[in-house]
């Protein structure tokens, strides 16, 4: 799988450089913070949606995905002689397509009520609530190229149960008390790290570097530790929260309005620091000293 719970930075960075990042990131964050009541509500809304309309809309997403090259496609073409795009254009390419996002949400956001199922092109049948969640996400991932009528169809069950703040009724809210349900005993440490990020300049975060492969090794160890401690969902939520802070701060630093985004090259560089900071905060009580100290290099950007 291109996107996994053990390496949420890939999904988060791709979402951060998406044209719809300011909408997509909160939606993905909520997907991993749903409680049982929210899953039941979304399943009920999905059961009322005409199957044919959703199938057509998802088919359009598949067609769009087939015509959009991934980062690997662009780099492979460059290796075969095609011109390499300018850095900002390359930075906005993504490792995965909408189907990869759907696969992650279908498999990793449960447990879902299983009485009603629905089909997903190329991915088989899954609980209807999970399909509705994945549909809303792929509609946004397909981005501005997806006609409004199909985006509306894919998002309909999600919109039917969405409350102010982009969370379905019954979902854990994005305030501190709600986040405690996902982040558990490490919520205070993660919130402190997020507060520190809000006060940092994105250009400062982007300047931090690590010795060769050190960041990858430390984040890999943190992911295995998160798996062993039952914190994979918490890790995804923390990483997506940090990504949202960086995207918002980058837009503010660049003088853009609420719909704007910052330079994608700088954002990608800054996110390595931001992700190390929050993952270190989440897993700091369980990591060995070398990995913990490596992730704490991110403090230099604050």
Q: Explain this structure to me?
A:
The protein has helices spanning 8-16, 21-31, 36-47, 51-67, 71-79, 87-91, 98-108, 128-141, 148-161, 176-183, 187-198, 202-206, 214-228, 232-253, 264-283, 289-295; strands at 117-120, 124-127, 162-163, 167-168. The chain is mainly alpha-helical and 302 residues long. The strands form two sheets. The protein has a two-stranded antiparallel sheet with strand order 1-2. Strands 3-4 form a two-stranded antiparallel sheet. Helix 2 packs antiparallel against helix 14, helix 4 packs across helix 9 and helix 10 (176-183) crosses helix 11. It is globular, with a radius of gyration of 19 Å.
Write the topology of this structure:
Layout: H1 8-16, H2 21-31, H3 36-47, H4 51-67, H5 71-79, H6 87-91, H7 98-108, E1 117-120, E2 124-127, H8 128-141, H9 148-161, E3 162-163, E4 167-168, H10 176-183, H11 187-198, H12 202-206, H13 214-228, H14 232-253, H15 264-283, H16 289-295
Antiparallel strand pairs: 1-2, 3-4
Helix pairs in contact: 1-14, 2-8, 2-14, 3-8, 3-9, 4-9, 7-8, 8-9, 10-11, 11-14, 11-15, 13-15, 13-16, 14-15
């Amino acid at each position: 799988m291109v996107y996994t719970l053990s390496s949420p930075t890939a999904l988060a960075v791709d979402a951060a450089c998406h044209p719809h990042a300011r909408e997509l990131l909160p939606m993905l964050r909520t997907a991993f913070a749903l409680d049982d009541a929210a899953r039941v509500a979304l399943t009920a809304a999905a059961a009322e949606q005409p199957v044919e309309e959703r199938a057509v809309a998802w088919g359009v997403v598949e067609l769009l995905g087939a015509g959009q090259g991934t980062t690997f496609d662009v780099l492979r073409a460059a290796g075969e002689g095609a011109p390499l795009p300018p850095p900002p254009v390359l930075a906005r390419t993504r490792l995965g397509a909408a189907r990869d996002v759907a696969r992650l949400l279908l498999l990793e956001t449960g447990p879902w009520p299983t009485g009603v199922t629905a089909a997903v092109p190329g991915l088989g049948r899954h609980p209807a609530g999970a399909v509705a969640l994945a549909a809303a996400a792929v509609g946004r991932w397909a981005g501005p190229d997806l006609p409004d009528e199909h985006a509306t169809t894919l998002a309909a069950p999600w919109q039917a149960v969405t409350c102010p703040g982009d969370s379905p009724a019954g979902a854990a809210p994005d305030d501190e008390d709600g986040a405690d349900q996902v982040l558990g005993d490490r919520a205070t440490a993660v919130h402190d790290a997020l507060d520190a990020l809000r006060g940092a300049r994105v250009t400062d975060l982007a300047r931090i570097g690590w010795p060769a492969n050190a960041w990858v090794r430390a984040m890999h160890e943190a992911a295995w530790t998160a798996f062993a401690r039952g914190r994979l969902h918490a890790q995804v939520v923390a990483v997506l929260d940090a990504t949202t802070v960086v995207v918002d701060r980058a837009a503010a630093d660049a003088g853009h309005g609420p719909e704007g985004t910052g330079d994608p090259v700088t954002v990608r560089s800054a996110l390595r620091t931001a992700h190390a900071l929050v993952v270190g905060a989440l897993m700091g009580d369980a990591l060995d000293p070398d990995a913990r100290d490596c992730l704490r290099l991110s403090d230099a950007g604050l």
